[in-house]
Every structure is written in C-alpha cells, then in structure tokens.
Amino acid sequence: MRVHIDSTKCAAYGTCAERAPAVFRLDDWGYAALVGDSSVSPADESAVTEAAAGCPERAITITS
Ligand code: SF4
C-alpha cells in the first residue's frame, strides 16, 4: 500500500495524524505531511485506511 496527501486539499484538521501517527505528522502550520516515504507497512494499513476515510477534505489517496 502507498499513500499520498493532496496538500491543495488538506485543511489542517489533524485527524489523520491522530489516527495513524506512524504515517502522518502535522507540519508547523498544522497541515499533514508523511512521516516517511509513501510506502505503508502492513501494520499501519488499517490505521491509514481509517485516516483516509476520515479525512473531511478527502485529501488522502491510497494506492496499491
Ligand atoms: S485529515 Fe485530511 S484535512 Fe485533516 S490534516 Fe489530515 S490530510 Fe489534512
């Protein structure tokens, strides 16, 4: 699984970083960024899927 954040859509709600802190972090302005690269470990896939579904702006895209 790979994950992408569309920074043009992110509105800094922060819920992604709460749901999957191993994958998402917030920058100094509260906008989402990736902790590492776009690859998601199997252990984090469930949390990332929840984070994507819970993003109010639909800014998170998951690909295989
Ligand atoms: S949940 Fe969505 S809008 Fe909120 S910080 Fe994460 S990517 Fe941005």
Write a concise synopsis of the structure shown.
This protein has 64 residues and is an alpha+beta fold. The chain is built from two helices and four strands.
Architecture overview:
- It is a single chain.
- The chain contains two helices and four strands, in the order βαββαβ.
- Helices cover 23% and strands 22% of the residues.
- It has 64 residues and is α+β, with helices and mostly antiparallel strands.
- Strands 1-4 form a two-stranded antiparallel sheet. Strands 2-3 form a two-stranded antiparallel ribbon.
- β2 and β3 form a beta hairpin.
- Iron/sulfur cluster binds next to α1.
- The site of iron/sulfur cluster has 14 residues, from α1.
Strand content: 15-25%
Major sheet details? 2 strands, antiparallel
Question: Helical region count?
Answer: 2
- List cofactors, ions and other ligands: iron/sulfur cluster
Tell me the structural class: alpha+beta
Distance between the termini: 4 Å
What is the number of beta strands?
4
Q: What is the molecular shape?
A: globular
What is the mean predicted local confidence, pLDDT? 97
H/E element sequence: EHEEHE
Strand order of the largest sheet: 1-4
Q: State the helicity in percent bands.
A: 10-25%
Gyration radius (Cα, Å) is 10 Å
**Runs with pLDDT <50, length 5+?**
none
Features:
single chain; 64 residues; alpha+beta; two-stranded antiparallel sheet; 2 helices; 4 strands; 22% strand; binds iron/sulfur cluster
Any chance you could write out the topology, listing elements then pairs?
Blueprint (H helix, E strand, L loop, with lengths): L1 E4 L9 H5 L4 E3 L5 E3 L10 H10 L5 E4 L1
Antiparallel strand pairs: 1-4, 2-3
Bound molecules: iron/sulfur cluster.
